Each structure stands twice: as C-alpha cells, then as structure tokens.
Amino acid sequence: xxKRVVFSILMAQILFVLILPILMPLTEYLHPLVLIVVWxxxxxxxxxxxxxxxxxxxxxxxxxxxxxxxxxxxxxxILLFFRPGGQVYDHVNVIPFKTITFYxxxxxxxxxxxxxxxxxxxxxxxxxxYYRCKREEAKLxxxxxxxxxxxxxxxxxxxITHRGSMDIDDVILNTTGILxxxxxxxxFRKVFFIQK
Length: 196
Prior knowledge:
- α7 (about 125-135) packs across α9.
- The protein is built from ten helices and four strands; from the N terminus they run αααβαβααααβααβ.
- Strands 1-4 form a two-stranded parallel ribbon. A two-stranded parallel sheet has the order 2-3.
- It is mainly α.
C-alpha cells in the first residue's frame, strides 16, 4: 500500500515537471509562489484520486491538519497581496458575472483565464473541507455566511491596500469553492481519516 502511495506521488512530480513550462507565465501575473501552491494542490489531487481509486485510507492527525491549513492560508495570502510590481489595481466590479464573462469570452490568454476561474474556486475548496473536519455537523448556511463575510473583507482590504481589485465575481467564485469543499467532504472522508 505504501509503495503505491510513493509511486503515485513520484508520478505526480514527474508530470508536474513536464507541465511546468506551461505554468511559468502565471509568475508574470502572480507571485512566483503560485507555482508552489499549484504544485501542492496538484500533488494532493493526484494522491487523493489514486487513493480513492485503490480504496486506500490515509490517517491524518488533527494537529497536522491545523498546521497544514495555516501554512496553506499564508501561501494564499501571499498570492493575494504580494503580486509582481507594475500592475494597477484600481478596478472595482459590483456587477455579478461581469468578470467571469470576460474570461469566458476569451478576452485574455487562455491560461490566465483558466487560472483565474478555476483557481478562484479550487484554491478555496480546502477551507470548506477543513470547516467540516472541525464541525462535521455544521450547517451549510452558517458556512456560506462566514465565507461571504470573510471573502468580502479580503476583497475590500485588497482594494484599500491597492494589492488587488475588488470584484463581486471573486466573492462568488471563492464562496463557491468553500461551499464545494463542504459538499465534497464525504468523498474526502473516504480517503482521509482525521484523528482527533
């Protein structure tokens, strides 16, 4: 069983190195740390899918999960607030789906469009899973309220510090990611057993 996990992780790393040239343009738009965040998410997804297919369960102590989510949050905050210089962040969008439509219409490079849409959802899925790990019986409506308030605060703070644009579509996409994490928790639990 351990050999399969090691092989899965090794294959994920080889494939990641092969797609790295495709991902490099993201560093022009975002902090170079974006490659580490994508690598973590990619490796986790590869391990998760492999473990799910081969019906393997991985035990994770709750303390390790707490440290992991703190580290992940720090990486994400760096991505949100420490972007390459020379970019102007004075844009405010309060019209729902305006930015999403912009990316779907092909107004920008496909990789940037894909990253902006997929990452704004995918990078926030761990928070919904973590919330459910901490409070398994928690209500979705409670999480939705916390998510909307937290992400709106981050968007506002990005705007006043000129480190990002304030966009209602980011609130929609990020909240969708968090709620999706909440909903896929039963699938997560099939692979990861949290030791409390």
